[in-house]
Amino acid sequence: MPISYFLVLSAVLFGLGVVAFVFKRNIITIFMSIELMLNAVNLAFVAFARAHNQLEGQIFVFFVIVVAAAEAAVGLAIVILIARHRGTLNVERVDTLKH
Amino acid sequence: MSAEMAVFLVLAAVAVAGAVSLILQRHPIHSALSLIAVMVSIAGMYLLLGAPFMAAVQIIVYAGAVMVLFVFVIMLLNAGQEERTNLSRMAHYIGVPLGVVFLAEVALWIARGSTQFTVQPSAASSTRGLAELLFKDYVFPFELTSFLILIAILGAIVLARREES
Q1: Residue A49 resides in a domain
Q2: % of residues, chain A, pLDDT over 70
Q3: Are B126 and A77 a contacting pair at CB < 8 A?
Q4: Which one of A21, A28, A63, A92 would you mutate to disrupt binding with B, by most B Cβ within 10 Å of its Cβ?
Q5: Residue A99 lies in a domain
Q6: Considering its fold, how many domains does chain A have in total?
Q7: For residue B60, is pLDDT > 90?
Q8: What are the CA-CA distances from residue A29 to residues A44, A59, A86 (Å)?
Q9: B residues 32..71 contacting A (CB < 8 A)
């Protein structure tokens, strides 16, 4: 089974993550699209690790997952803080730096 | 068509459908459920690629812990339907070309460069090798991640704490 299939799928998922990141207005959904992009990159890592018969790629995915979990914890705390202070989850209402 | 190929096609269809559904759904809880479908099918891909440990971690950490945290926050904040604004129509004009250009670029790169790789059929259990790498060669980064998680816990508690004044 050629590895390029996995790479194409990874690229498609990453592209959909980019589109979701630009399109969505809800701050939690934008956060989820970042997770989607990280997952797409992880898939490419594991596919390359398999193609080259080396385990380092999987180690890297392990670290990416750990960092993503830490990022989700801190990011969602910030989301709660924004929702508490501004009363909205729409990113266009969070525009203090514009004024 | 081999059985491997059929499994791949089914999982890929589920993953892409989930990602598209994440974009199209207007309620964040539906987007979160679509993302869980994507993550589970990516875990299936890891099994297909001979990485059972990564598949387990993907299910436990991503589909389990991280997404439960997301769903929990959505319910805590009582997040409703996403509202449409003028700016989000503008994002359509920027977002679609951006996504298409990016996809075309990656497809071009893949078509030109890396088609010579094929996934080897030898599927030795990689978990033992992974453990040896992780606890011998990469033991220092591994310990650093535990420190990172500790800092993340402290940060989350400090940020989400209600100020008394």
Answers
A1: yes
A2: 100
A3: no
A4: A28
A5: no
A6: 1
A7: yes
A8: 23, 28, 17
A9: 32, 35, 38-39, 42, 45-46, 49-51, 53-54, 57-58, 61-62, 65-66, 69-70
CA angle B11, B16, B22 (to 5 degrees): 125
Reported as a single tens digit per residue, the pLDDT across B16-44 is: 999 999 988 889 999 999 999 999 999 99
Q: What is the pLDDT of residue B12?
A: 94
Q: Is A44 on the interface with B (CB under 8 A)?
A: no
Q: What is the CATH number of the domain that holds A41?
A: 1.10.287.3510
Mutate to test the interface with A, among B2, B7, B49 (most CBs of A within 10 A): B49
Provide the domain limits for residue A43. 3-86
Least reliable range by pLDDT among A37-46, B4-13, B86-95, B115-124: B115-124
3-state secondary structure A19-70: HHHHHCCEHHHHHHHHHHHHHHHHHHHHHHHHHCCCCHHHHHHHHHHHHHHH
Tell me the whole-structure pTM to 2 decimals: 0.88
Nearest CA in chain B to A34: B35
Q: Is residue A92 part of a domain?
A: no
pLDDT band at B146 (very low <50, low <70, confident <90, very high): very high
Whether residue A94 lies inside any domain: the answer is no
